[in-house]
Write a structure and sequence with these properties.
Structural class: mainly alpha
Number of strands: 0
Largest sheet: none
Radius of gyration: 25 Å
Order of helices and strands: HHHHHHHHHHHHHHHHHHHH
Helix content: 55-70%
Distance between the termini: 39 Å
Amino acid sequence: PPQDSADLLRQWGCSDNDISKLFSRRPSLSRANLAQLRSKLQILTDVGITGPDLVKVIHCRPRFLSCRINNHLEDRLQYFISLFGSKEVLRRAIVRNPSILTYDFPGRIKAIVDLYEKMGVSKDDLVPMLMSRPTLIPRTSLENEKLDYIRRTGVPQNSKSYKYVVTIMAVSRLTTIREKVANLEKFGFSEEEVLSLFGRSPFMLTFSIDKIQRNMTFILGIMKLPAKVVFEHPFLLHCNLENVLRPRVLLAAKIQDMGLSPQIQGPNVFRALRMTECRFLKAFVGCHTGDVSNELMEFYNTVKGVKRLAEASKKNYTKGFPF
């Protein structure tokens, strides 16, 4: 029989490296009650969780093994297997968001799934949304104002983008939605036009106000395009300003100044901005030879290397749940 938590975890299938990571993230786990820990590990075994999976789970939710994950366990697992379609997909969902084993089962999980079904989002469509947005269940709320926004996007329920519109609106705060609508209104759009744009490109709702402002300012000020070009080409707001939009537009101006061909003008601008990096460089830099190609490449790398003020001093914290 195991003498302590480390022995039990080792017998369960964790490597010494896994155990070290687990105890580092949750030191009290080394002093856990063995009977309770064994019971919870058995539950995880039943859904296919392995040692490396457990490391990811504890990294996201350090107190996970201190929670009562056996509440409504049998009903919960049967429901989840039915919802996700297989134990393997359920395993991936648990690793993405371990808390689905701790949420209130009848009052939250079933209620939220039923709510989406009433909104016209089937279980088959909801599963990919749960995988891509792990906090969908705890964050979902659909007040009357949100329902009005969803209706005014003009996206029909049979559209492939409908599930994205509904779920992104549902997990967003009302104040955030209002701020993002108001931000685009500053560029001359009406509220109806903004909501229509969100309907055409739902992921735009996930962009920060700062990103939209900076891209729009560049489109209007440097590219000299009308604001409503984003209705025809929403990807202009998706593009990364530092790595794609600015360097490619400035390289286009450089090619024009040098009188080279092919030039990036008119409709070619939008085509060039949507190309992969490799294809773009092959089409507009690699087509030249010798010093010309080298000069263009050096210029492109220089403008691409210009970062935002204080960007290099940003601190990225990846500890814990990344959503």
